[in-house]
Amino acid sequence: MSSRLSRRRLATYVADGLLAGTPTRAILFEQLAGYLIDTRRTKELGLIVRDIEYRLADKGHLNATVTSAFDLTSETMAAITTFVKQKTKAHTVMLNALVDPSVLGGIKISLPGHEINQTIAHQLTVLKTRFKKV
Length: 134
Known about the structure:
Blueprint: H1 7-20, H2 25-38, H3 45-58, E1 61-68, H4 74-88, E2 92-99, E3 107-111, E4 114-117, H5 120-133
Parallel strand pairs: 1-2
Antiparallel strand pairs: 1-3, 3-4
């Protein structure tokens, strides 16, 4: 039976392997999956993935999710990438685009540990909350 490693150690191992260019990512992920199954910690997978994203962000590699009501053009995605790089001092930024009509308009950028929400739905919620207090 394997010894129990902390989530931080697992995240650091995987993040370092990804940055070092491990021959194949599949091997790295198979090792992680095998360890989690062997130690019966599969329920922690979501937390470990989040920890890996934090470790990568600490080393200047961000994975961001951009949510908008409509498809974004390549020019808009490039502008968002530049904006995120400037604000976070990251070396590389990977953007995942999501289309969610419920945001009505604007964009929401989700980063590890931070979110920039400039959607119309969010602004309407803020206004609704402010007027409830009055």
